[in-house]
Amino acid sequence: MDLWYTEKQTDDFGITAKVKRTLQSEKTDFQQLDMLETKEWGNMLVLDGMVMTTEKDDFVYHEMISHVPLFTHPNPKKVLVVGGGDGGVIREVLKHPSVEKAVLVEIDGKVIEASKQHLPSIAGELTNPRVEVKVDDGFMHIAKSEAEYDVIMVDSTEPVGPAVNLFTKGFYAGIAKALKEDGIFVAQSDNPWFKADLIKQVHQDVLEIFPITKLYTANIPTYPSGLWTFTLGSKQHDPLKVGQDRFHQIETSYYTQALHQACFALPKFVEDLTK
Amino acid sequence: MDLWYTEKQTDDFGITAKVKRTLQSEKTDFQQLDMLETKEWGNMLVLDGMVMTTEKDDFVYHEMISHVPLFTHPNPKKVLVVGGGDGGVIREVLKHPSVEKAVLVEIDGKVIEASKQHLPSIAGELTNPRVEVKVDDGFMHIAKSEAEYDVIMVDSTEPVGPAVNLFTKGFYAGIAKALKEDGIFVAQSDNPWFKADLIKQVHQDVLEIFPITKLYTANIPTYPSGLWTFTLGSKQHDPLKVGQDRFHQIETSYYTQALHQACFALPKFVEDLTK
Amino acid sequence: MDLWYTEKQTDDFGITAKVKRTLQSEKTDFQQLDMLETKEWGNMLVLDGMVMTTEKDDFVYHEMISHVPLFTHPNPKKVLVVGGGDGGVIREVLKHPSVEKAVLVEIDGKVIEASKQHLPSIAGELTNPRVEVKVDDGFMHIAKSEAEYDVIMVDSTEPVGPAVNLFTKGFYAGIAKALKEDGIFVAQSDNPWFKADLIKQVHQDVLEIFPITKLYTANIPTYPSGLWTFTLGSKQHDPLKVGQDRFHQIETSYYTQALHQACFALPKFVEDLTK
Amino acid sequence: MDLWYTEKQTDDFGITAKVKRTLQSEKTDFQQLDMLETKEWGNMLVLDGMVMTTEKDDFVYHEMISHVPLFTHPNPKKVLVVGGGDGGVIREVLKHPSVEKAVLVEIDGKVIEASKQHLPSIAGELTNPRVEVKVDDGFMHIAKSEAEYDVIMVDSTEPVGPAVNLFTKGFYAGIAKALKEDGIFVAQSDNPWFKADLIKQVHQDVLEIFPITKLYTANIPTYPSGLWTFTLGSKQHDPLKVGQDRFHQIETSYYTQALHQACFALPKFVEDLTK
Predict the structure, then answer these.
(1) CB contact under 8 A, C12 and D10
(2) Which residues of C lie closer than 8 Å to B, measured between beta carbons?
(3) Same domain? C218 vs C198
(4) CATH, residue D22
(5) Chain-centre distance of CA C252, in angstroms?
(6) pLDDT tens digit string along C67-89?
(7) So what's the ipTM on this one?
(8) pLDDT at B106
(9) Which PROSITE patterns does its entry note (chains A, B, C, D) (predicted)?
(10) C-chain residues within 8 Å CB-CB of D6?
(11) Are residues A169 and A266 in the same domain?
(12) Does residue B165 surpass a pLDDT of 90?
C-alpha cells in the first residue's frame, strides 16, 4: 500500500517517507501528535505535522545538543532540559557521571507517554532515578529558577504553537538567571537554508545576554535541509577551549572529541549570520 | 498548479519540490535529462531522475570538491574534471590563479549545452580560455593520460548508468597514473546514511593506491540525507598539513579556511566506515 | 523522472497524473494557464490548478454537453457557446448540419491560442467558416443578446475566478432572454459527490426560469468523482420526448441515441438533489 | 499531518486520499490488508494496495451488483456471493424478502473480521440468520455446486492474486452449472478506460455460456476512472424485460427502477467492447 507522510518544510519543498502504519494519532491539549511506523526511519514522532525524532537518526540531535555543553562545563551536576519529552536528551545527559540530577520540564505529558510506548530506545532513561520529570510549562519553570542549573538545554519545537515563548529574549534572560554563575545553555536554532533570519535573531538575542555565544551545526537527515544549528550561550566556559583531559570516553554514534571543535567551523553563509 | 518533482532517494524516502515548468526534457544518448524550474531551488538539473545540481545550493558541492584539493596542492597548474558537465567545478577551479589549464571531460555533450542555456550562473566559465572542454569518455581519457595532472576531480553521477566505471579500483589506478608524482584526486562518494557500503568500498579501494586517503563531508540539502562525502587520495600532500600561508582569499559561500580542516572531522558512524 | 501533477479535488482527495513536460505555463489576465503533456491522458489543459480537458477523455464532456440539447431542438440554426475556449464544444456542434452559425464567446484569448497550439484534435474546428470566435465576457454578451440563439451551452470553469457570474440566477435569466422562444440551454453543473449544494442551487434557479429543467450525467474520469452533471433548461422541447426520426447518424465515442434517454436516469442520491 | 494514501490505478495515473490513521495493517495468508481512516471517504478497505470499498461510496457498487440481477429474477430464493467479504452485497441481498438463504464464500477470513470491526455499516448483516458465511475458496465452492442457486454475484478483486481464477471461462462454466435452470450471474468486470481488453474478454467468455449476456455500468468515485462495469449472464431472464409489477420498494441511494434500464445504455466506446 502506497501510504506516504510528507512534511512540507517550506511552501515549495519537503521530504516524503513511506509509512507502514500509524501507531498513535491524537490531538493533545497542546498539539497534534502522530507516531508513525516508517520503513526508512523506524518509528517517527511528528508534532503539528513536523518530524521531531526518529529511531534511526535521533542520535545526531540528542548527542550534539548534549555533549557539546556538557563537555564544555568542567563539572556539570544539575542539568535542565526544557521540552525534550521524547527523552533523547536525558539519555545522553546521563552518560555523564558527574550529573547528579537531570530535570525534564515538558509541557505536553502525552509526548512523554507516547515516547515511552513507541520510542523505547530514545525514552528508556526517563525512569532513571537521577531523572526528575515535570509536566509543566518550561517558560514558567525557568522564571521560577535562580542560580540552580549548570547546564540547560532547550529542546523545543519550531517557534510556533506551544514553543513560541521559547524563542524570545525574555526567555534567554530567564535562562541566564536560572543558571549558576558558570552555567551554559544550548538551544536548537533551526536551519540556515530556510530560516536564516531566525538564526540571526536568536544569535543576536543570546549574544546580548551571554558573553560567549556560539553557533554550531550537525547533520540531521529528517530535519529541514539536513543542516541543523544549535546556539550555545555560556557565562564563562568557552567550548573551543576545553582541556584535553576534560574529555572522557562515552559511547556515541555522532559526537567525537574532534567534532566538538569542528562543529563550530561554520559554512561561510552560516558564519555570516552571526556577524 | 500542484506540480511536484519527487526523487525517491531510497525505496522508502525522498524529497519533493514544487515545479513551475519543465525547461528541457530529453533522452540523450546516455541518460534522461530534465531541467526543471523549481520554486525553492531555482533551475534544477536532473539526470536519470536524480538531482544533480540547483542554482540555489550548487555552491556547496562545487566549492568543496574543488578548494579542498586545490589548497592542499602547493601549486596546481593543470587540473582535470571528469564529468561535471554543468561547469560548477570549473568555475571554482578558475578561482585559483595558479591554474593554467582546466580540462573538462564530460561524456554527455547535452549536459553541457543544457547547463549553458539554463544554468548560466554555474556554467558561465566553461568558455573561459583557460578551460578545455572535451565531450568524451572520462574513463578512456584517464586511461590515455600519464603524469599529466596536478589535481583531478571526479564529479560523477551515482554508480549507475554512464558513471558505473568511475567507481572501480581500475579507474582509481588510472587516475594515479594520470596524476603527476605529487598529484591529488577527489571523488564524490555519496552519503553515509543510505550508501554506507559504497563509501567503505571506495575508501578501501583508494587507500590501496594512494598513501594519503581521507574522507570529508559537506551539507548539500538537495542530495540524499543532506550529508555528502568526498574521498580524497593524495600521493604526497596531506590536506590536514597545509601551511597557513598557502591559503589566499577567494570568494566563497561555503568553503572557509577553518572548514578545510573541520570537514575532515567525521561523525563517529562515518569515521567507522574508514576503518 | 518522477514529475506528477496533483489536483486536490477536495481538501482531502484528489487525482495525480504523471507529467512528461510542461508545454506552457503562464499567468493570463484571468487565470493561471498550464498545458501539460501527461503520460496517461495526453496533453492536458489546466486552469487555476483544475483539469479542464485532456486529449484522451475530452470527447465525453464535449459530446454530452452538445448533442443532448442539439438533438432535443428540432432545428438548431444558431448556437452560442459561452466559455469553451478549447474548442471541443464547437467541434461537436458542427457535426449538426442544421447549424448555420456557432458563436464562441471566451473571455480568455490565451485559452484559445494554447488550445489551437497544443490541443489540435480538440480545437481544430475553431477556424471553420461556420464559427465566429469572440474574445469577450460571456456574461456581457448574453446581456446584449435577445431572442437570437436556438441553443446555448455554458462551458465554464468552476464558480470561482472568471466564471463566478456564470452561476447566478441573473445569468440564467439573461440566457432565457437571449434564446429564441423555443430555445434550449445547458450548463455544466459539477459533481454530486463533492458539490451537491451547487447542483441543487443551479437546478432551483434554472427551474424558476425554464419550464422544462432536467439534470443529466456523464462519466468523465479526470473530473472530480468521475460523475459529471449537466443542467438543461428548455422553453418548449423536452429532451425525453424527441421523436425517433429526429436523430441522424453522427460520429461519436460516448453519446448514443439510447444514452440520450438513459443519461437522465439519475442515481437516487442525485435525483434527490432535484426535488 | 500530511499523510496520504495513493493508489496508482495505472502506471501513470491515480487517486490520493488524506489519511487520519491506519486502523489495521497486516499480511494475511492471501494478501496485504489495510484499513484506513480517511477524511473524505470514511473508513476504507485496501487489499494489495487497491481500494475495495469505503464507508461513503460503498452503496453504489453493492446496490448495483445486487439489485439488477435480483429484480431481473422473478423469485430469487437462494443466492451466492463469491468474495465480498466486506458484507456489502449481503446487506443488499437481504433487502429482497424472497431470499431465504444467502451464502457468502470468501477465501480470506481476515477480510470478514476486519470489515465487521471497522466497517459496521457495510458488514452489519453478516450475522443475519438468513446468511451463511463460509471461509473457503470460491472457485472450489462453485465446482462442487450444482443447480443450487438462483443468483450468483462474483464480488472479486482484480484478476491478480487470489482472484485470478475468477476471471476464467472455466469458472463461468462452473457458475452456469451451479445455477438453477433460470439462474442469473453477475461479475464485476473493471473499467473501460484502463482495462478495455479485460471487459472484452469477459464478455466474450460469458457470452459463449449464457444466452443472455449484458454489460452495465455504475459510477464509483474511488474505483479507477470512476466508471465501473458489471457483466451479467442469464439463462432465461432478460434484465431489460422485467415487468413493472416485479419491482417493489426498497431503500437505496443509487439504484432506481429507471436506472435498472438505463444502466445498460452504454457509452459508445464501451458498447463497442461488447461487439
Answers:
(1) no
(2) 1-8, 19-22, 25, 32, 34, 36, 46, 49
(3) yes
(4) 2.30.140.10
(5) 16
(6) 999 999 999 999 999 999 999 99
(7) 0.94
(8) 97
(9) PABS_1, PABS_2
(10) 16
(11) yes
(12) no
Q: Which of C34, C150, C155, C205 is catalytic?
A: C155
A247 and A145 co-located in one domain: yes
Verify that A34 and A149 share a domain, yes or no: no
Residue C222 near residue C51 (C-beta atoms within 8 A)? yes
Q: For residues A152 and A65, give the distance between their C-alpha atoms in angstroms, rounded to a whole number.
A: 10
Query: Which residue in chain C is spatially nearest to D221 when comparing CA positions?
Result: C225
Average pLDDT over residues B163-188: 92
In this prediction, what percent of chain B has a pLDDT beyond 90?
Answer: 94
Q: How many Å apart are CA D107 and CA D116, to the nearest integer?
A: 16
A3 interaction partners in chain D (CB closer than 8 Å) = 3-6, 19, 22, 34, 36
Q: What is the pLDDT of residues B225-262, one digit of tens each?
A: 999 999 999 999 999 999 999 999 999 999 999 999 99
C-alpha cell of residue C212: 422544462
First to last CA, chain B: 49
Q: Which of D168, D157, D191 is nearest to D266 (CA)?
A: D191
Report the residue from A16, A253, A263 with minimal CB separation from B14: A16
Please write the tens of the pLDDT for every residue from B14-61. Answer: 999 999 999 999 999 999 999 999 999 999 999 999 999 999 999 999
Judged against a pLDDT cut of 80, whether residue B160 lies above it is answered with no
Q: Per the structure block, which three cell numbers stand in for C173?
A: 435569466
Question: Do B30 and B81 belong together in one domain?
Answer: no
The model's confidence at residue A166, banded by pLDDT at 50, 70 and 90, is confident
Please give the helix or strand (H or E) that residue A72 lies within, else none.
helix A58-72
Q: Using CB atoms, which residue from D6, D217, D264 is nearest to C16?
A: D6
Contacts of D19 in chain C (CB under 8 A): none
C interface test, pick of D12, D195, D271 with most C CB neighbours within 10 Å:
D12
Cell triple for residue A275?
Answer: 556577524
Q: Tell me if C18 sits within 8 A of C39, measured CB to CB.
A: yes
Query: What nine digits make up the cell of B71?
Result: 589548497
Which CATH number belongs to the domain containing residue C266 in this structure? 3.40.50.150
- Shortest CA distance to C171 belongs to which of C38, C274, C82? C82
The nearest CA of chain A is from the CA of B70 a distance in Å of 18
Q: Between C and D, how many CB-CB pairs are < 8 A?
A: 125
Torsion over CA of A20, A24, A27 and A28, rounded to 10 degrees? -140
- Indicate the residue of C2, C5, C21 with minimum beta-carbon distance to B1: C5
D235 — pLDDT class (breaks 50, 70, 90): very high
- Please check whether residues D78 and D114 belong to one and the same domain: yes
Cα(B235)–Cα(B238) distance, integer angstroms: 9
Same domain? For A168 and A213 the reply is: yes
Answer yes or no: are the C-beta atoms of D139 and D166 closer than 8 Å. yes
Q: Does residue C57 carry a pLDDT above 90? A: yes
Strand duo A179-188 + A149-155: pairing: parallel
Quick one: cell of D130? 438468513
Number of domains chain A contains = 2
| Band (D21; pLDDT cuts 50, 70, 90) | very high
- 3-state helix, strand, coil split of chain B in percent (to 5) is 35, 35, 30
Cβ contacts of D54 within 8 Å, gap of 6 or more: D38, D41, D42, D43, D44, D45, D222
B106 and B32 share one domain: no
Question: Domain range holding D27?
Answer: 4-54
